[in-house]
Each structure stands twice: as C-alpha cells, then as structure tokens.
Amino acid sequence: MYDFVIVGARCAGAALACFLGRAGYKVLLIDQYDRPGPTLSTHIIGETDVYDSLGIRKQMETAGAPTMTRMRVDLEGTVMEADMVITPRTLGLRRELFDAMLLKQAADCSRVQVMLNTRVTGVIWEGERVKGITCKRANGTSCSFYAKAIIGADGRHSLIAREVQAATIAMSDANHLDVVYAYLANVEPLPIPTVEWYWTDRGVVICNPIDQGLHCIALMLPGDDFSGWKGSLAACYLERIDQLKTLRPRLQNAQIVGKIRGVRRLVSYIRQPFGRGWALVGDAAAHLHPVAGVGIDNAVCSAWYLADELDQYMQGYKTWQHAMESYQQRRDERILPQYEASLKTLARTGRAFTDSASEQSLRMLCTFPSLVKALARRSEEVLTLLQGVIDE
Fold it and tell me: Cα dist. 54→22, 198, 327 in Å?
C-alpha cells in the first residue's frame, strides 16, 4: 500500500514524485519506458523557482545550454527583437536530458520507488473510488498496486484519463498545425542566445539553441504541407527551413543529429483533473499546442501545485474535494489564458500576409529610426489598440 502511485515518469510525474517523496510520503513512480527518450517539445524552459525547489536549476544551467535572454520575431524577413519580458531567461534542453535529471532526483528520494519497463493496463475500483492499478512487466508477469490516490501523469494519450473517463472542460483542433522537429549541429549561433520565431505563409518555425551546441528547429505547418515527405524527410525538412532568408546564411554547414520527429493531428484540451481517488497532471490533464511554448513549465508547475494540495489533504488541513478544487483553480488560472492565447495565435497562422501596403508600412516601422523612436513614445497606445484587435 502506497500513499501515492504516479503513472508516468516524465517531467510532470518525476517532479511530482520528488515533491511528495521529500515531504515524507511513500510513492511508487511507474513507467513503461526503460529510460527517458526524445519526445514532442519546443524545449523551452522559462521558470526558475520551481527548479530551485526541485534542486536541479544549477544542473540545468550548467548542462551546456546557452541562457536565452532575447526574443526575435521574423515576418517574411522583417525582424523585431527585444529582451524577454515575461521571464528574464529561458533554457533549451533535450527532453532525454532534462527528464533524466528529474527522474534521478525522484529516484534519490528514499520514500520513492521507481519501477520502469512496466506497463499500466487498468485501474482498480472500489465502488466509485479508484484504489489501485493493474500492470504488466516486461517479462509478461502481471501485478497490482494500491494507494490512497492514483495520479495520471501519462501524457496526451493518458490511460488513466480514459479509465476514469475524465471530463473535457475545453477542447479544440481548429487551425492546429502538424509539427516536425529535429536537432541540428553546426547552425551558426546568434551573438546573444535568442528564441527565434518565424512567421511563414502557412505556419510557424521556432528555432532555439539547446545543449551540446545544438539547435532545435520545429516546423509547424498544415498537414497537407507534409504530403510527399515520407520518402525524403530530411531533404524536405532542410529545404523548408532553407526558405527562411534570414536563417538561411546560418545553415550552410548544418547537419541533422539523430532522427527527425513529428506528430500529426494535434488537439488542445483541458480535462477535469481529479475525481474520487484519482488526479491528473501534465499533459494527461491539459495539453496546449506546442506553438504556446509552455508545455514543460506547465507540467512541472502543475505538479508543484498538486503536491502542495495533496500534502494539505494528507495532513488533514483540507478534505480531498477541497484540496483538489484548489489544485484545479491554481492550474486553471495558469493554463486557461494560455489556452485561449494559443488558439488565437493558431488562428493567425492561416492568414497570409499578402497586403503589399501593410508589408511596406511594417518595413518602414522597422527600418526608419525616427519611426521606431516615435513608436516607442506611444507604445502603450499601440499595445492597447493591438490588444483589442487580438481579442476580436
């Protein structure tokens, strides 16, 4: 009998196990993989405090990834760039590296048992309450585990969410772009490490430096743009990013490292994150299209919120219902605005920038110093006006 069984040992599940184990609770962390591997991600990490709490911030910042402090937005060769506003810095780490850091932190907790190569096959009910899980090990043997609460941290295709029939609070696939990404070596870096966002005529390209001197470049395009790529994936990928005229000069010696990966038919959703004896965290509870660039931080911070509320429940300060309602409120306050903003961004990907007068005006704003200064002096008015347009 465990206090908590956590299904899924990637960033959300491993972080939650670490928080709960350090709080003194007996935790089983279980996953079907044998070690963390690559997974869909924009590889952008902006939070700081939560990683201090987990004890891995220094390790993250010394893992070979440059600290990115600037944001560049490129619209068909017209570029705007500035220091970041929402966070003082971001890092880009491969998920196989980042998730392994969190998994080690969890495994080092004496109260956490890590069980890999084990596939969860279902949940065990006692009346209307979940009380355990059934599993199958790599050798084919079956086993069951019981806990005061079962936590689903098992990603977009969460078995736990299906088994408990978690309700959907919000969902959309409107304008959702397919994603193909790769790690590239020998991309000439910018003088100051920067998150680079490229608007294209059909979608978005995001480029950022990551660890080991690599860059992660993600193509986000309508699904039909990828038709015909199957037999020549690498060539088509390189040809597409080479169309970005301000990025092209830095790609002369670029080489793809490892596999090109992608995912199709993405859906954004927010699920009811708890019920009797169960809770969901990370992508099992909410998933936003990668265009939002916040998936890692949302997963780890949601685990932080959930661990705090579970501790309140276990100590008797809150009922299960009260604790989980508080967890949901904290999660929704963070994620719901991002959900809405990401849908608006995706809606704009289908609107081609073909008005030559508007294009010329934008170039003037970016290339005439006096106009830049005038724009800066009235930037609050312009931002207010634009916010009204964005909210339409």
Answer: 10, 33, 19
